[in-house]
Design brief:
With 175 residues, this protein is an alpha+beta fold. The protein has one domain: Aminopeptidase (3-Layer(aba) Sandwich), CATH 3.40.630. It is built from 5 helices and 7 strands; from the N terminus they run E-H-H-H-E-E-E-H-E-H-E-E. Strands 1-2-3-4-5-7-6 form a 7-stranded mixed sheet, with helices on both faces. Helix 4 links the parallel strand 4 and strand 5. Helix 1 crosses helix 3. It is globular and about 40 Å long.
Amino acid sequence: MPGSTRIRLIAPSDATAIAGHRARDAEALRPWEPDRPAAYFTPEGQAERIDKLLAGYQAGSAWPGVVLAEDQVIGQVTVSGIRAEPHMRRGSVGYWIAGVAQNQGHAGRAVGLVLRVMSNELGLRRAEASTRLENLASHRVLRRNAFSPYGIAHSSIFLDGSWRDDLLWERILGD
């Protein structure tokens, strides 16, 4: 599997695979993500979420992708909050990799691939990301892709019963 990472636009047919990964990894992802309703972990809940992501894609505000290894969906990489105005041209990168495929370099390669999409297909100039302060694995993924930390967003997300800080990251594309 190492070296075989690809990304593509998410499709409604990805709902079952994503729901399976999310249900299996729910506890492992709990420190990094907000509480989700039970329906989120079902194929129907993921189909609804994918429909919303694709609506954002059609509106030009998102590029939602899946991460593939050996043609199997193993995660997601999404550009959200796309600002395509001439004076903005930026988007925010988010990603996750299923537990069964972690520690094989897929996250780093997927982020590298989505940066090319941002620059070449979407015409964006700036990539942004945020991570929990303690998420050292995500820090490594972003550093490998030439992101630099530039600040802390205090009390930016409510997780596991309390408000948490995020480390903010940036990368100028095309440099």
